[in-house]
Design a protein that fits this description.
Shape: globular
Organism: Seriola lalandi dorsalis
Structural class: mainly alpha
Helix content: over 70%
Strand content: under 5%
Membrane topology: Multi-pass membrane protein
Catalytic activity: ADP(out) + CoA(in) = ADP(in) + CoA(out); ADP(in) + ATP(out) = ADP(out) + ATP(in); AMP(in) + ADP(out) = AMP(out) + ADP(in); dADP(in) + ADP(out) = dADP(out) + ADP(in)
Radius of gyration: 26 Å
Pfam families: Mito_carr
Number of helices: 14
Low-confidence stretches: 8-32
Distance between the termini: 55 Å
Mean pLDDT: 82
Protein name: Mitochondrial coenzyme A transporter SLC25A42
Order of helices and strands: HHHHHHHHHHHHHH
Length: 328
Amino acid sequence: MAHRVHDRQSRLPVAQATVLALPPTSQAKDLRPRWTALDSLLCGAFAGAVAKTVIAPLDRTKIIFQVSSKRFSAKEAFRLIYCTYMKHGLLSLWRGNSATMVRVMPYAAIQFCSHEQYKKLLGNYFGYQGKALPPFPRFLAGSLAGTTAAMLTYPLDMVRARMAVTAREMYSNIMHVFVRISQEEGVKTLYRGFTPTILGVIPYAGITFFTYETLKKLHTEKTKRSQPYPHERLAFGACAGLIGQSASYPLDVVRRRMQTAGVTGSSYGTILGTMREIVTQEGVVRGLYKGLSMNWLKGPVAVGISFTTFDITHSLLLKLHQMGYFTH
């Protein structure tokens, strides 16, 4: 009898250990981190804000040249930056950056978030669930993401352009720009330049996301590492930005001319009319590609920082989910 009791007691801890070592399947599933649309929105907004703040003085200088008939050169661009600094102070180089943040944070958030969603949708449609998309769907996902973001945030881009090329006395803040444009030029003016914007965004966003995703895919295949190092991400983003912005730059010039026509005294009404006038007065290269060299400097930096910040923030949030700091 004593032998039976002892035998039953000796087997009990083993049975308990076995039960404890096998948690229910549903609990194991709940422990896995889940990536949501909100996470994509947060990462995208932060990435856009960091990137645009870094290159804000160069971006403002480019816009000023784009909307004027002055001949562009790197020397003249940096002279303008220096004169602005000496006359109005360091913070004047970031004039209009508040409008940029109001625009770029929702724009980048929507673009990155919708890109993730479009990748999933196209992956399911083409039969590549959880895998890297083939070239055309990869390009299409980027184009759709850029178009979605541009459509939802366009009036903010108009406001930002107006603030960049005018003195503080004309527009005191973002709301003042909205009110004055609506009262003096009509609400439709807030969407002036919308068509060239969309036509420019389709190749720009498509090529940019396509190039970045392709370079990451090739890197993984060659190095057998699932994730690139931060400096490699910067390089991939810089290449993506350089190619994407060069392809769509003339439409960017047209967009800026149409957006600022109300304060520069010009009468740009249509895309072809604007292009014709620019080419007639300034030539093809000096007109439609004015400021492109400045874009080659700021564009790759901005896109590289944006993609890198998004990926790093993405990884950090996933780790925080794993550690149990966030719950959905």
